[in-house]
């Protein structure tokens, strides 16, 4: 039976990147002589720019809710059907975080070389980024929550993931970056209970303390940071730049759903946004999307070596100076993808 992969597309450059994803995934599948089916959401989800185009606050709220309802149901249905992964282009953040709250999402990214890597686990299921807005004529009240259950679920996932990343002992240090001083001591107690339950030590720090220590010392080898989005959303791109020598435009990452309704479903996305100003210009950087296609093919479709194959192709493009304008090149999105597909060579044949 052929593996099935989900595809969800937002406005802005979403349709262009979805086409890149399909083309690269199909080429990888052909190279490995496997079949991969795509199941695509029938809704084109809004970006923030498309929402604001000619819409007032009430209309934006309604469209946001519709997008969140539809995408959450798409994910639940894919998970129930056994679909292991979805590739999603950027959509409006408010809709996205409503889905992440409902389905208890965590974002996972490994930053830096394997021997010293930093594992970032972003808590997307609770806190300020989640919640509901209540409007009055001259004010907006945002109500959000933290819970013992979700905190425990995220820590349990993070500990498991660290042991997968580093099988010979897991993380050497676990740090949690939260504004816990605002939570009446409740988060401190939950973290201590969870750490004892899992037999690990967890250092719970204020975000500014985490920043100061990273600036002063850098991450120790095999450090895992579990962080609320209030810190992690801002710092993700900084961590990529400082410790991974990577730009967000080139990076894909994964979101894992922990709610039973979607448990096991992994969503891949580009780290960059919808780039509405580039829509239709054929200049959006396709590298993150290409990497997402390779990761999905290797991890969920049996194409062992696909990631290395694509990375070698990208290295070839780098030597040739083939890049979109944001990376200092003069090539279109289409030209970059064409050059990459020409450079792809199965790893088994490319090994010395």
UniProtKB/TrEMBL annotation:
InterPro entries: ICDH/IPMDH (IPR050501), IsoPropMal-DH-like_dom (IPR024084). Its cofactor is Mg(2+); Mn(2+). Gene3D superfamilies: Isopropylmalate Dehydrogenase (3.40.718.10). Residues 4-340 form the Isopropylmalate dehydrogenase-like domain. The keyword Translocase does not apply. Keywords: Manganese, Metal-binding, NAD, Oxidoreductase. One of its GO terms (molecular function) is metal ion binding. This is Isocitrate/isopropylmalate dehydrogenase. It comes from Streptosporangium saharense.
């Amino acid at each position: 039976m052929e593996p099935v992969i989900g595809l969800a597309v937002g406005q802005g450059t979403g349709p262009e990147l979805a086409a890149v994803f399909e083309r690269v995934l199909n080429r990888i599948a052909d190279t490995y002589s496997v079949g991969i089916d795509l199941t695509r959401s029938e809704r084109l989800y809004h970006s923030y720019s498309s929402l604001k185009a000619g819409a007032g606050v009430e209309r934006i709220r309604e469209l946001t809710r519709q997008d969140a309802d539809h995408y959450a149901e798409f994910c639940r249905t894919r998970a129930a059907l056994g679909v292991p992964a979805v590739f999603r282009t950027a959509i409006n953040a408010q809709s996205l975080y409503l889905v992440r709250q409902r389905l208890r999402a965590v974002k996972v990214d490994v930053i830096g070389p394997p021997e010293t890597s930093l594992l970032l686990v972003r808590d997307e299921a609770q806190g300020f980024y989640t919640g509901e807005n209540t409007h009055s004529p001259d004010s907006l009240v945002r109500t959000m929550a933290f819970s013992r259950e979700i905190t425990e679920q995220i820590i349990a996932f993070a500990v498991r993931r660290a042991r997968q990343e580093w099988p010979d002992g897991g993380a050497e240090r676990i740090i949690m970056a939260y504004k816990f001083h605002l939570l009446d001591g409740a988060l401190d107690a939950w973290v201590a209970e969870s750490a004892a339950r899992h037999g690990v030590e967890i250092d719970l720090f204020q975000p500014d303390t985490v920043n100061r220590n990273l600036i002063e010392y850098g991450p120790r080898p095999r450090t895992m940071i579990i962080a609320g989005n209030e810190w992690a959303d801002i710092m993700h791109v900084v961590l990529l730049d400082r410790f991974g020598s990577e730009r967000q435009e080139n990076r894909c990452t994964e979101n894992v759903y922990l709610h039973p309704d979607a448990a096991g479903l992994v969503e891949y996305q580009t780290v960059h946004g919808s780039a509405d100003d580039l829509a239709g210009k054929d200049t959006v950087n396709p590298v993150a999307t290409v990497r997402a296609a390779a990761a999905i093919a290797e991890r969920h479709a049996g194409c062992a070596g696909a990631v290395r194959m694509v990375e070698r192709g990208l290295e070839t493009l780098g030597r040739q100076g083939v890049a979109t304008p944001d990376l200092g090149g003069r090539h279109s999105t289409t030209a970059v993808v064409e050059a990459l597909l020409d450079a792809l060579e199965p790893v088994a044949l490319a090994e010395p």
